[in-house]
Design brief:
Layout: E1 5-10, H1 19-39, H2 44-69, E2 72-78, E3 81-87, E4 92-98, E5 102-108, E6 113-118, E7 123-127, H3 131-177
Antiparallel strand pairs: 1-2, 2-3, 3-4, 5-6, 6-7
Helix pairs in contact: 1-2
């Protein structure tokens, strides 16, 4: 049975860091390790202590920022539109994007993010907790967008046929009057 709507919240309580954030911290930790290793006359212990201090400081600051800002996003996708509700500590913003206005979408299955772009040029960011959420969203969106494209082309074909029929009938009636 086809689903009528898909909804999810980001970030999940189970996930502390996004994949992109973790990847960036790992790259920075490697840089800190090599820099401190070369600066400390190639002593491994000092380099490891510097990396541990860097990661601990990052985790502490990240935890404090998450608690202070309290950011949460709720996504609801149904057969007519995508609704995004962003909550911070001080304000709530809601965006509604009609599916017929979406001209392009891009999703990254490794970093679990993406965007949808409308005909007006607006870009709406999307964030997912799991790959399963992303795949469900993509499957639902493709199915709905394909249905919309098919119905739009069917309407164009019908209007073209009506126009050609009217032109032919007009010519025949003028010929009969003469």
């Amino acid at each position: 049975m086809a689903e009528n709507k898909i909804s999810w919240s980001f970030p999940s309580r189970k996930i502390s860091f996004m994949k992109l954030e973790t990847f960036t911290v790992i790259i920075l930790a490697i840089f800190v390790f090599f820099y401190s290793f070369l600066q400390a006359d190639q002593r491994w212990f000092h380099a490891v202590i510097a990396v541990v201090a860097f990661i601990a400081l990052y985790v502490l600051i990240s935890f404090i920022i998450q608690k202070v800002r309290r950011v949460e996003e709720k996504y609801v996708l149904n057969h007519q539109h995508l609704e995004v509700t962003r909550k911070t500590k001080t304000k709530i913003t809601k965006e509604r994007v009609h599916l017929k206005d979406i001209k392009h979408h891009k999703l990254d299955k490794f970093f679990l993010g993406g965007y949808v772009m409308t005909h007006g040029g607006d870009r709406h960011a999307l964030f997912f907790n799991t790959r399963r959420e992303l795949e469900r969203f993509e499957k639902f969106l493709k199915r709905k967008l394909n249905l919309a494209k098919k119905s739009a082309t069917a309407v164009k074909k019908v209007t073209r046929k009506v126009k050609t029929v009217k032109k032919k009938s007009v010519k025949k009636t003028k010929a009969r009057r003469r």
